[in-house]
């Protein structure tokens, strides 16, 4: 019998061969680097046990509010993900009293903007959006504390960088893209999702959105090879995402749901959740 040749990885970059911004010559090396370094941006999934005055619920309220602020300021997608990452990495190393938690949030957004945005909101804008709860000096002092606590290691691989690549591998249209981002932004609010690394969260969000729109389980060979995750590896995380989708419009924290219920985001939040993924017999 002849040896079976290994099936090649589908080329998802040929369409961008003439686009210098797509850097197709070394895009694989870039994402291999992201995969090797993504752990640097992860935190202990139970770091709140070291905080004495704040808890998971307060974190959720803060991030839900920041998602609305991010939307109001019309900031770039990557700014939101980096903001949340900076908050978690800082809180994992520094204890914070509850009255300073919002200050941590707006300062993290300021720092993320300086890395990702062309036009950065001024400090006064952030003070105003916080109902003048803090002074300019307090924001600048918190900024100094945060960058020193994080040792100026600000830019790390977040779920966003993987989302762009994995959506491309899945040959996603705008509808699937909006739904994928709706699902993963729901996860930003949920403290329990810190146990998953950024690449797995991104892959599971794309998979969950794909299944939601198709009405059945689907994970292509191209997606599996470019994400390095099989369908079985994604199911646990995906089922949690379906639960978040199901309860998104209820309760007090509905910032993500309201954002993705608008026409601007294709009313993605109003899609029926993929409840069939909850069947553990699948």
TrEMBL record:
<dbReference type="GO" id="GO:0010332">
    <property type="term" value="P:response to gamma radiation"/>
</dbReference>
<dbReference type="InterPro" id="IPR039361">
    <property type="entry name" value="Cyclin"/>
</dbReference>
<feature type="domain" description="Cyclin C-terminal">
    <location>
        <begin position="157"/>
        <end position="274"/>
    </location>
</feature>
<dbReference type="InterPro" id="IPR048258">
    <property type="entry name" value="Cyclins_cyclin-box"/>
</dbReference>
<dbReference type="InterPro" id="IPR013763">
    <property type="entry name" value="Cyclin-like_dom"/>
</dbReference>
<dbReference type="InterPro" id="IPR004367">
    <property type="entry name" value="Cyclin_C-dom"/>
</dbReference>
<keyword id="KW-0132">Cell division</keyword>
<dbReference type="GO" id="GO:0016538">
    <property type="term" value="F:cyclin-dependent protein serine/threonine kinase regulator activity"/>
</dbReference>
<dbReference type="GO" id="GO:0051301">
    <property type="term" value="P:cell division"/>
</dbReference>
<protein>
    <submittedName>
        <fullName>Putative Cyclin-B2-2</fullName>
    </submittedName>
</protein>
<feature type="domain" description="Cyclin-like">
    <location>
        <begin position="161"/>
        <end position="243"/>
    </location>
</feature>
<dbReference type="Pfam" id="PF00134">
    <property type="entry name" value="Cyclin_N"/>
</dbReference>
<dbReference type="Pfam" id="PF02984">
    <property type="entry name" value="Cyclin_C"/>
</dbReference>
<keyword id="KW-0131">Cell cycle</keyword>
<comment type="similarity">
    <text>Belongs to the cyclin family. Cyclin AB subfamily.</text>
</comment>
<dbReference type="InterPro" id="IPR046965">
    <property type="entry name" value="Cyclin_A/B-like"/>
</dbReference>
<dbReference type="InterPro" id="IPR036915">
    <property type="entry name" value="Cyclin-like_sf"/>
</dbReference>
<dbReference type="InterPro" id="IPR006671">
    <property type="entry name" value="Cyclin_N"/>
</dbReference>
<feature type="domain" description="Cyclin-like">
    <location>
        <begin position="64"/>
        <end position="148"/>
    </location>
</feature>
<dbReference type="GO" id="GO:0044772">
    <property type="term" value="P:mitotic cell cycle phase transition"/>
</dbReference>
<keyword id="KW-0195">Cyclin</keyword>
